[in-house]
């Protein structure tokens, strides 16, 4: 039985390359593509692929939040992060968010094929250049760090945070999330209060520190 794979990346050329790579490999079916985080979650919930290959930095919802939500809406899907970021902070957040694999975009194509096979078998896969020993230390440090205010945010508050940090106004966010501007205002106020933020500049800085947006 073939492995069903979904691709989530906002760059069409990268999705084309991934699709071509996987279609040339026996045993894989690419069943869908998403160009932003919200579409990725919707597709994962609807199609329930065996594996989702997800970029970290996507519009509307970043890959880390896609990871967190996929654990609720597509619990059977194994997620592999495909990213240009090799720093431990990104890898740690991805693993803590539930990623089964983390492959760097400058890795060779065989790495991604191997990653898919391993995560389908229930194993975790990391690109060779990422030190597993250092990651374990970071993971343990994260466990010992205590409560994280971000974890208290609701699904909708995280979506509002992501879109607000990208510079969208409340009416624009309302259109994207299909809710009223007043509801966006409430979610935004609750989110700012939980995170101890007071204005847009602090919100953007927080999002950058949290790796919810590409670094400046």
Layout of SSEs?
Layout: E1 3-8, H1 12-23, E2 28-34, H2 37-47, E3 51-54, H3 63-73, E4 78-83, H4 88-97, E5 101-104, H5 109-120, E6 125-126, H6 132-144, H7 155-165, H8 170-177, H9 181-195, H10 200-209
Parallel strand pairs: 1-2, 1-3, 3-4, 4-5, 5-6
Helix pairs in contact: 2-3, 4-6, 7-9, 7-10, 8-9
Q: What is the C-level CATH assignment of the largest domain?
A: Alpha Beta
In terms of DSSP E residues, the strand content is 5-15%
In the CATH hierarchy, what is the superfamily of the largest domain? Response regulator
Indicate the overall shape. globular
Calculate Rg over CA atoms. Answer: 17 Å
Q: What structural class do the secondary elements suggest?
A: alpha/beta
CATH architectural group of the largest domain: 3-Layer(aba) Sandwich
Overall mean pLDDT stands at 86
Helix content: 40-55%
Termini gap: 44 Å
pLDDT < 50 stretches: none
Number of strands: 6
**What topology, given as strand order, has the largest sheet?**
2-1-3-4-5-6
CATH topology of the largest domain: Rossmann fold
Along the chain, the helix and strand elements come as EHEHEHEHEHEHHHHH
Described by strand count, sense and barrel closure, the largest sheet is:
6 strands, parallel
Number of domains: 2
Number of helices: 10
